[in-house]
Amino acid sequence: MKYLVLALWSLCLAATSLAAQSNYRVQPGDTLAIEVLEDGDLNRSLLVLPDGTINFPFAGTLRAGGRSVSQIQAAITQAIARNFAAPPTVFVTVASVRPPVLADTAFEPETIDIFFTGEINTPGARAVEPGTTFLQAISLSGGFTRFAATKRVQLRRVGHGGNVQTFSVNYRALSDGAALQNDIILQDGDVILVPERRLFE
Q1: pTM for the complete prediction?
Q2: HEC states along 130-187?
């Protein structure tokens, strides 16, 4: 009887969690866990970028900010369906939400936040010291996935007026000994995006 009560209680908690997630609208800074039953290589955790987008293999850039998990799930399923003989089974959950920003700004932060996304083994936000460079940050990323297009690593920066600057770096050439004339010094909110490798790239 005790085990039955525990099982029912667990089911109630799971149902409550699912209901809460179905009503929740994803926000920039949240982390999504995405699972594709038909291809485990596609399973990953993705950070929702400051502009509200995510980048998923075979789907490219998708809007996630302001959407429910079921809407994101449907968008991914539709985008990758052409790569499967039958419609794939996709599950999306909110793995973590971005903590609220504290109102107390009496002390200046000693770190800046940068974001890794795309074909990175450990995507997400990192707090780094001011003055950290692009290459130093890459060393914190945990390495690239097998889908990574290391010739086209991008740094995206939101400038004044909301304009987005994009810097492209051939990381493969650098790792093979090419010289980097100017290593980019990172700013708070910078996003390092590693795109998916194209066929035969």
Answers
A1: 0.54
A2: CCCEHHHHHCCCCCECCCECCCCEEEEEECHHHCEEEEEECHHHHHCCCCCCCCCECC
Within a 13 Å sphere around the CA of 172, how many CA atoms are in the beta-carbon half? Answer: 9
For 122, phi and psi rounded to 5 degrees? Answer: -130, 75
Kind and range of the H or E run holding 19: helix 2-23
* CB 195, CB 152: distance < 8 Å: yes
DSSP single-letter state for residue 67: -
User: Which of 113, 11, 27 shows the shortest CA–CA distance to 68?
Assistant: 27
Q: What angle do CA 59, 114, 144 make, to 5 degrees?
A: 50
Q: Nearest-CA neighbor of 154 among 112, 105, 182, 196? A: 196
Buried b (16+ CB within 10 A) or exposed e, 126-135: bebeeebebe
Q: What is the pLDDT along the chain (201 residues), one digit of tens a residue?
A: 544 444 444 444 444 444 455 678 998 888 999 999 999 999 999 888 888 899 899 888 999 988 999 999 999 999 999 999 999 999 999 988 876 655 554 555 588 999 999 998 888 888 998 888 888 888 888 888 988 998 999 989 887 777 888 888 888 887 777 766 667 889 899 999 999 988 776
Closest CA to 39 of 61, 58, 18, 60: 58
